[in-house]
Every structure is written in structure tokens, then in C-alpha cells.
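chain below, 461 aa
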Amino acid sequence: MLKLSSRLLNCSCPVVRSFKGTLVKPSAPLYHRNISYSDVTMSSKSRMAKRIEGGGNNVWVEFGRLTAEHNALNLGQGFPNFSPPEYVKDSLCQAVKSDNVLLNQYTRSYGHPRLVNALAKTFSPLHSREIDAMEEIMVSIGAYESLFCSMQGLVNPGDEVIIIEPFFDCYEPMVKVAGGIPVFIPLRPTKSEGVVTSDDWKLDPAELASKFSDKTKAIIVNTPHNPTGKIFTRDELTMIADLCKKHDVVVIADEVYEWLVYKGHQHTRIATLPDMWERTVTIGSAGKTFSVTGWKLGWSIGPKDLIHALKTVHQNCTYTCPTPIQEAVAIGFERETPLIGKPECYFNELPAELEPKRKKMAKFLSEVGMVPTIPEGGYFMMADYSKLNVQMDEKSDEPKDFQFVKWLTKNKKLSAIPPSAFYSAEHKHLASNFIRFCFIKTDETLEKAEKIIKDWKATLA
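prediction:
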């Protein structure tokens, strides 16, 4: 039987502020204590909590700063440097300027009514079931908060959570802050010559099965996958699902790149597999869906009992999300949902626009001697640089990929991300020969990157 985290058992969901403006006093926060002056002036009590110690290092901060310091072309961080659809931006402006004054005030804690209804209308047919907008959906501050609420709401101290490597770097600290124990399993590249695709990155079935036990509470499944671009096949997801049913395990399905799927490939939602709806929380992102990463809006979809656990954390954390942004995203879904499957749908237009960018990047990385992994989905590209003649400090404790990205940023003015940041300490060596680039950029930006690569190639001749 699936249970919510024990820390939430006495935190009942209160009546919330309605969209019509009824004010209701919220319940006390989950974590509350009175802090006196003496608390913060005594050195032994002014230290950070032990549960977050060691989580201060951040690859985005480190390499973002390095990129700025050297005025390098940024192909590291995953955000578009082009405009989202005009109608999406117009919808936000109209919401802010609306005569409906409530669009600039608090809305329903668990999701603006117009948005959760739009999400239910979009995702019900995709899940082959009628999704209850009020009970089976929660809107969050980005997919990030949905992940956080999933860990805090479902994981008890000592529970094990399986994480597939490479992984989005917040997974591990979020599990640890919840008191959980991360258990890692790597995708392993099975090909290093010729044309390599993200499908060539595989889980070993026996190794995966060995990670499950009676201590396993959840597994995080990210598909389409960041950073490899792998789209897990139905057979692969069935293998994971069968283990989850055997060991009574929850799936946290991070599907923020669900619409970024390239020709010849298909995204399967693990929640749609037999008997998996009841044990799956599926997480999505407006930032990835509409190319508005700065709006920081996400959602979780799943059965009432699991979503209830997330709601309990959310109401005592951020409580609600920005109303005008939710209104604008709702309008976006209302416009696009009837067009799903048609070329003019933005969910199809965006991957069609990215395909030639993917091709261009793969070509110029290959020309300099790297071996790119062609992604089936998402907008990142892993590349093996091991054939390049770049000297690394073999005696350094710093991973080779960190050294290479720093060299590339400083000497060639081109920045990327070292993917060993997405591995456990035990498996960092698996990423030592790889580098991650982002190609959801303007053609002008990619042309600048291509020139840098070609100029570099000329020096190698």
C-alpha cells in the first residue's frame, strides 16, 4: 500500500482561499519555530541544518560565472534565446491588464481553476482516462517544486529512491533533504563509433533489478531524458513498471520534455501502462512546453492520494502560484489542445524548428573530432571529446570533463556543461569523456558556435 511521508500525517489540507476571494486562515507551516536574537548570534545555532550540508555546490552557478567572466558563447544552460509564441506573451499582458481584478490576486492554492481545467482537458485523452482537475492535478512553481513536493510528501527517512544516471542535478539533494537514500543506476553508452544516438544509452536489466528492494519507495524516470535525449521505449518502461509493481514502488515521472520529440520517435507516458496510473506522479513544465522558462510554472498529475501528499507540502511551502502566469498558460493550452497532432500546433512546430539545429550542431561537433550523441528528444546533445588532443591534469582531483569545459570556455570562448555533475561520486568516471551542449538557440548563435569550432579545427590541421 502506498503511503505519504510520515512527516505529513498530522498536516491536514485546510480550506483554501477561493478564486472568488473568500479569505480563510491557512494552517500553520509544516516547519515552524520561534527564532530569538540569541539563536542567531550563537555560532553553534547559526549553522545551516545538517540535512542540507554539502548541497551548496552548483554547476549552473559555477559555469555561468565562468561564461560571463570570459565572455564566452553560452551553449551550456538549457533555455531558448529566442522569443516564445506572441500569443502566449500577449495572454500574460492581457491577464495583468484585465478588468477582472482577481487576476492580479491570489488564486486557488493547488492551481488556478482555468489552468487545471485546461490541463485536465489536454492530458485526459493522452492518459486514456478522465483526469479530475481539482483532485488529480497540482500546479507548482516550476517542475522543480513538483519534484520537491514529491520527495517531501512521499519519502520517509530511510526510504530508498532509485535515480537513473545521468540525472538532473536536483534529484539527489532533494532525496537527501527528505531523509531518503539515493540509489544510483547508470545508463551506459553501448556504442562509441559511427552514428551514436540516445537509444544507444541503455539500462542493464539485471543491474536495474538489483537496485529494487523492500526499502525502495520510489524511482525517478526522466523521459525524454536530460542530458542524453533518450526517449525510453515502451519495452524499457514496461521493464521499469513491472519492477515497480513487484516491489510496490512509486514512479516520479519527470516528463518536462514530453513535446520535444523528433521524427521517427514517440513518447510513451509510463502512467498509461497497465496498473501504473495508481502509482505514478507525472510532472510537466510550462517553461519547456511554451519556451518560457522564466515563468517558472509546472504541474503534477496523478491519483488523488499521491497528489494529496504533494498538495500538503505545497500549501505549507509556496501556498500558491502567480495568477496571471497561470491564466496565460491556460490560454496557451486552450489554443493548442484542439491542434494536437497537426503541423500548426506549437507542440509540433517547436521540435520541427529544432531538428535542423540538432543536425547543424551534430555536424560541426563531428567536424572537430567529437562524437555526438544524436538525441531522440529534448534539446541537449552529449558529445564524446576523447579523441581531441587537449591535455588534462591527470593528477588533479577535478573531473576531466570539468577541466575540459573550463579549457574550452577560457581558450575558445565556448561554454558547455560537464555532465559528471549529473552522476553520483561512484559513477562520475562514466562521464569523464563527455560534454553537454544546448541547441535551443537562434541560428545566429549556432553559426557563431560553428565558426568557433571551425577556427579551432584549422589549428589542429
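The chain has 14 helices and 15 strands. The two ends are 63 Å apart (CA to CA).
thats it, cya
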